[in-house]
């Protein structure tokens, strides 16, 4: 059974423009924190906090890949509400800002921007 607290996590995750931008770019491909930081032009700590909130609401997952920690959309969210938003993201996140971010995703290169 979904509680009000569970529902509020979903709304909290969707209530910030930066988190929506993160969801949009992760819709395209897996990204590490430094890539997301570069695309959004935010501090690493800020991006990490946003990622934590999105993970808490089951929107994204993470996986270790060598020295990288990749973040990606959770296409198997346990809550039907989260899963419904994920499946409709392209519809909801379709604007000029989103298109600009999508172009940045195509050119961001972790080997050039991430420190080792």
SSE inventory with pairings:
Elements: H1 4-14, H2 17-28, E1 31-32, H3 33-40, H4 44-56, E2 60-65, E3 68-73, H5 80-87, H6 89-92, H7 96-107, H8 110-113
Antiparallel strand pairs: 1-3, 2-3
Fold and architecture overview:
With 116 residues, the protein is of the alpha+beta class. The protein has one domain (4-101): Winged helix-like DNA-binding domain superfamily/Winged helix DNA-binding domain (Arc Repressor Mutant, subunit A, Orthogonal Bundle). It is built from eight helices and three strands. Strands 1-3-2 form a three-stranded antiparallel β-sheet. A hairpin with a 2-residue loop joins strand 2 and strand 3 (68-73). Helix 1 (4-14) runs antiparallel to helix 4, helix 2 (17-28) crosses helix 4 and helix 2 packs across helix 7 (96-107). The longest helix is centred in the middle third of the chain and has 13 residues, at 44-56.
Keywords:
116 residues, alpha+beta, Arc Repressor Mutant, subunit A, 3-stranded antiparallel sheet, 12% strand, globular
Portion in strands: 5-15%
The structural class is alpha+beta
CATH superfamily: Winged helix-like DNA-binding domain superfamily/Winged helix DNA-binding domain
User: Count of DSSP E strands?
Assistant: 3
Radius of gyration: 14 Å
The helix content, as a percent range, equals 55-70%
* Largest β-sheet summary: 3 strands, antiparallel
């Amino acid at each position: 059974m979904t509680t009000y607290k569970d529902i509020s996590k979903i709304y909290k995750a969707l209530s910030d423009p930066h988190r929506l931008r993160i969801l949009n770019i992760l819709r395209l491909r897996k990204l590490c924190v430094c890539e997301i930081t570069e695309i959004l032009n935010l501090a690493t700590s800020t991006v990490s906090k946003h990622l934590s909130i999105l993970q808490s609401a089951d929107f994204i997952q993470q996986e270790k890949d060598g020295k990288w920690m990749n973040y990606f959309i959770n296409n198997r969210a346990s809550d039907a509400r989260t899963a419904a938003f994920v499946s409709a993201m392209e519809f909801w996140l379709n604007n000029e800002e989103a298109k600009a971010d999508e172009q940045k995703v195509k050119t961001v290169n972790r080997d050039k921007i991430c420190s080792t």
